[in-house]
Amino acid sequence: MLDVKKLIKNSSAVSDVMGEVLMTTISVLILSSIAVFVFSYDGAADIPHTQVKGWMNAQDDTIYLVNSGGEFIDTESFEIAVNINEHRSIYSSSQIYANLGNRNLWKLGDTIEINTFGEWGIDIKEGDEINVYLIDIPSKGIIHNLKISSEYLEASNWTAP
Length: 161
Prior knowledge:
single chain; 161 residues; alpha+beta; Immunoglobulin-like; 2 domains; three-stranded antiparallel beta sheet; 5 helices; 9 strands; 32% helix
C-alpha cells in the first residue's frame, strides 16, 4: 500500500518539474502568437502610381483621360468609376482594353475616351461636376482620382484630340 506520508516528504522535485512545464508552455504560447502575426501579414498592397490628366467635351458627351506620368498600368487590373452628378457608373477593365486598341498596358501618353451617352446614356453638360476614380482591382485601392469640369478644361489648356 502506498504511504501518503512518504509521498508528501519526497515531493521536492515536483516544483522543479512544474516550473519547467510552465516555462515551456509560456514560451510556446509567445512564439505561437508571434508566428500568427508574422504569417498573417500579406504585405503592403502594391497599388500602381500614375498621374492622369482629364478633360471633357460636353458637345460630344466624351471624357478624355491621358496617362501623363508614372507607372504603366495593366488593363486587366484596374477599372474606372465615373461619378457624374451623383450618378455612378463603372468602365470595366475589358472596356479599357478595347478602348486602348486591345493592348494590355495603359502607357505614358495613351488616351482613354469614354463616351458617356454611348456607354451609360448620360448626357454631360458644361456645368457638370465629374469625379473619376481609377480603382486597382486586386487591392481595391484608388490609384488616382480627379475632378473634371468645364472650369478645369479652361484652366488646364488641354484640348480634345
